[in-house]
Design brief:
Length: 102
């Protein structure tokens, strides 16, 4: 998995080790290979040319992407609450964006 970068806007709110670990998880992306495979399989799905094994692979990648997004959102909400910030304010403060595959 590759990682997105984040930039804390405020140095007055230092991060704990646990928060650093959470941010590392938040900024993880699925691999470029899985992203490319997902796009190709979605194209085949729309063209109605997807084989059964390709369909299983599409489900596997989709489940992985969903799991990453769920964990990402859980951690962002947790960290935002700890800092008494709304989720959008937290995302802005740490320059967090929605991954391109979401």
């Amino acid at each position: 998995m590759t990682q997105l970068t984040y930039r804390p806007v405020s140095e007055t709110m230092p991060l704990t080790d646990e928060e650093v670990e959470r941010l590392a998880t938040i900024t993880q992306e699925i691999s470029a290979e899985d992203q490319q495979c997902y796009r190709k399989l979605r194209e085949k799905l729309h063209a109605m040319t997807l084989t059964e094994s390709e369909h299983e692979e599409l489900i596997r990648i989709s489940d992985n992407m969903e799991g990453v997004q769920v964990k990402r959102l859980e951690y962002m909400v947790e960290l935002a609450q700890k800092r008494n910030l709304s989720l959008p304010a937290f995302m802005e403060a740490y320059s967090l964006n929605t991954p391109p595959y979401a």
